[in-house]
Specification:
single chain; mainly alpha; Growth Hormone, Chain: A; 19 helices; about 0% strand; transport; membrane
C-alpha cells in the first residue's frame, strides 16, 4: 500500500520556521561535545571526575524530557519550547562565571533540566502543525536538519574553542536566543491548553485532557517505547563503545572522527532522497527493514580489521538509522492524541534519554568481560529481535493510529468559534 507523496509545499509555513529553529539550535550545540575536554584540560579534573559531571547533564535531560512533555499539555507546546530555549541560554551564559567543579556540575544539571524539555515540545509542534499524511516526511526533514546542524556545529566549535573555551558557552547562549526569536516570530501553536483561550476553556472541560497515568497504562504505546529503548541502547554504542573499540585495536581518534564525518555526510546527502523513496511503503515495514539493516551494519563491526571495513559497517548502519528514526518518531506521534500529546512524546523521548545513560554501562561491561566482538554481535541480535517484536505488534499500533486520527478530527470539528483555529494548511489537508 503506497502513501501519497509529500512535497515541500505540502508542509505549512509554521513547520518550516520550526525546521529553521531546529537547524540553528543543532548548529550551535557547541558545549556538551567538548565539555569533557574543557574539564580535563582547563579545569584540571580527572577523566572520571569529568565523566561524573557530564553525566549530571544527562540526568537533567532524563527528568526534563518527561517534565517537558507534561508542560506541553498544560501550558502549550510553543510556550514550553520558548521557555526551554531561553532558560537554557541563561544557564549557558552563567556557567563560565563559576570555576568550582561542584558549581559547574550543578549548572550543567540545571542546563539539562531545562534543555531536554525542547525535545517533546518540538515533536508535538510538528505533529500538530502537519497533517497525518505528511508527518513522516516532515519528521525526515526535521531529522535532516538535526544532522546538518550537527555536521556544521563541531567545525564552528573547534574554531571558537581555539580562541577561548568560554566563548563556546556564550556562543551557544546566543544561538539559543536566535532560535527562540525564530519560534516566537514564525511558529504559532495550534493547540489551546485547557484553561486558556476564552471560550475554548469551557469546551476543553468536556474533553479528556489526558494524564501521565493514562500514557503509562497504554500497553500498545509502551511496548513500542520499550522496543525503541533497546534500539537506542544499540544506537548510542556508536559514540560510547565504538571509539573505545577502535582505540584498543590501534586506530587513532582521528580515524574514528572520520567515521563520524562519513555518517554525517551520508545522512545529509541521502536523508531527503531516501525519505521520498521509503514514503511509498508502510512505516511499520520500513522500520522493521531499517532495524535489520542496522543489525547487518553493527554486526560487521565484530569482524572489522581495517578502517575501510569499519567505513563499510558505518555506511550500512547509517542507512538503517536513516529509515528507523523518522519512521519511529512519526509512529509515536500518530499514536498520541492532542490533549495528551506532550505526555506521550515526553515518554517516547525518555527512551532515548535513558538509553544515553544505560548504553555506556552495557557497552563497557560487555567489552570488559566478553570482548568487543560479543558486543557487536549482541547488538546485531538485539536489532533482529526488536524488528521481529515490532512486526508482531504492528497491527495493534496501526489500529491505534487510526483511532487517534479519528479522535483528533472530532476535536477539531468541535472547536468553538472563540478558539484559535488549526493552521490553514492542516485544515485543508484534513
Amino acid at each position: 500500500m503506497t502513501a501519497p507523496r509529500t512535497r515541500a509545499r505540502d508542509l505549512p509555513t509554521g513547520f518550516w520556521w520550526l525546521w529553521l529553529a531546529v537547524l540553528v539550535t543543532w548548529t550551535g550545540r557547541f558545549v556538551v561535545p567538548f565539555m569533557t575536554l574543557f574539564l580535563t584540560r582547563d579545569a584540571g579534573l580527572t577523566t572520571s571526575q569529568a565523566g561524573l559531571i557530564v553525566a549530571g547533564y544527562g540526568g537533567g535531560v532524563v527528568v526534563s524530557t518527561l517534565g517537558g512533555g507534561v508542560l506541553c499539555d498544560l501550558v502549550g507546546r510553543r510556550r514550553t519550547l520558548l521557555g526551554s530555549m531561553l532558560l537554557s541560554a541563561v544557564a549557558m551564559g552563567v556557567i563560565p562565571s563559576f570555576t568550582h567543579p561542584a558549581a559547574t556540575a550543578g549548572l550543567l544539571f540545571v542546563f539539562g533540566l531545562v534543555n531536554g524539555a525542547a525535545q517533546p515540545a518540538i515533536t508535538a509542534l510538528v505533529t500538530d502543525l502537519v497533517a497525518p499524511a505528511h508527518r513522516r516526511t516532515a519528521f525526515a526533514y526535521k531529522y535532516w536538519a538535526v544532522n546538518l546542524g550537527y555536521a556544521i556545529g563541531p567545525l564552528l566549535a573547534g574554531f571558537i574553542a581555539e580562541r577561548a573555551f568560554e566563548y563556546l558557552f556564550y556562543a551557544q547562549a546566543g544561538v539559543l536566543v536566535i532560535a527562540a526569536a525564530i519560534v516566537l516570530g514564525g511558529v504559532r501553536d495550534p493547540y489551546t491548553p485547557p484553561g486558556l483561550g476564552g471560550r475554548a476553556r469551557r469546551a476543553d472541560r468536556a474533553v479528556d485532557t489526558g494524564s501521565l497515568g493514562e500514557v503509562l497504562r497504554d500497553r500498545v504505546f509502551l511496548t513500542f517505547v520499550a522496543g525503541m529503548f533497546v534500539y537506542s541502547v544499540v544506537y548510542v554504542q556508536s559514540t560510547v563503545s565504538l571509539p573505545v573499540t577502535m582505540l584498543d585495536e590501534g586506530f587513532t581518534s582521528q580515524q574514528y572522527g572520520l567515521l563520524l564525518t562519513l555518517n554525517g555526510v551520508l545522512l545529509c546527502a541521502l536523508g531527503i532522497p531516501s525519505a521520498s523513496l521509503v514514503a511509498r511503503w508502510r512505516r511499520e515495514a520500513i522500520l522493521a527493514v531499517a532495524l535489520c539493516v542496522t543489525a547487518v551494519g553493527v554486526g560487521l563491526q565484530a569482524f572489522a580489521t581495517s578502517w575501510a571495513w569499519y567505513a563499510v559497517a558505518v555506511g550500512v548502519w547509517t542507512l538503517g538509522e536513516m529509515g528507523a528514526h523518522p519512521a519511529a518518531q512519526s509512529i509515536a506521534a500518530d499514536m498520541s492524541h492532542r490533549r495528551a500529546r506532550g505526555r506521550y512524546l515526553g515518554v517516547y523521548a525518555l527512551a532515548f534519554s535513558t538509553a544515553t545513560m544505560v548504553a555506556p554501562l552495557v557497552g563497557g561491561g560487555v567489552i570488559q568481560y566478553l570482548g568487543s566482538a560479543a558486543l557487536w554481535l549482541g547488538c546485531a541480535a538485539a536489532c533482529v529481535l526488536i524488528a521481529a517484536f515490532l512486526t508482531a505488534t504492528a497491527r495493534s499500533r496501526e489500529d491505534r493510529v487510526a483511532r487517534s486520527e479519528g479522535a483528533d478530527g472530532a476535536q477539531d470539528t468541535d472547536e468553538p468559534d472563540g478558539a484559535r483555529p488549526v493552521d490553514e494548511t492542516v485544515q485543508k489537508a484534513r
